[in-house]
Backbone:
């Protein structure tokens, strides 16, 4: 979702219900199609503007459940309209100033090959063209072999 749609989305969700279960990708999370990676505080602020309170009452229940994808175990929150029974009933798993980062997300297979696969063919092609130009500038038609590099 483009950043310009964050406010209208939250306005629409909060107009539709007094309780909203919400998850959004965080910075560094990666993933397909994620273009507006924001920390949980960003979304909490948008919901607060609509009179909703962030409650961290779901993650403790699913944190160790491997059947639940890691990104939900990390990013799932309940937003409740202020004054609703759930706004103050349960204790939050973590206070708002703490962020939970799943090791699967933070340190997943982030090798160069995995990174290039996530970035897509357009970037790989652009890098290839850059190397081709560098080789042409140096008078090479083929990439250097191991013996040439020494």
Residues:
């Amino acid at each position: 979702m483009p950043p310009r749609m964050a406010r209208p989305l939250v306005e629409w969700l909060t107009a539709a219900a007094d309780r909203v279960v919400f998850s959004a990708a965080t910075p560094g999370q990666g993933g397909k199609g994620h273009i507006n990676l924001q920390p949980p505080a960003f979304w909490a602020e948008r919901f607060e503007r609509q009179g909703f309170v962030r409650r961290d009452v779901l993650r403790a229940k699913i944190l160790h459940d491997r059947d639940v994808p890691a990104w939900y175990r990390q990013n799932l929150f309940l937003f409740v309209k202020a004054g609703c029974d759930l706004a103050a009933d349960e204790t939050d798993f973590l206070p708002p100033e703490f962020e939970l980062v799943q090791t699967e997300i933070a340190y997943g297979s982030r090798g160069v090959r995995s990174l290039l696969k996530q970035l897509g063919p357009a970037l790989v092609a652009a890098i290839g063209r850059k190397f081709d130009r560098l080789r042409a500038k140096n008078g090479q038609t083929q990439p250097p072999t191991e013996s040439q590099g020494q």
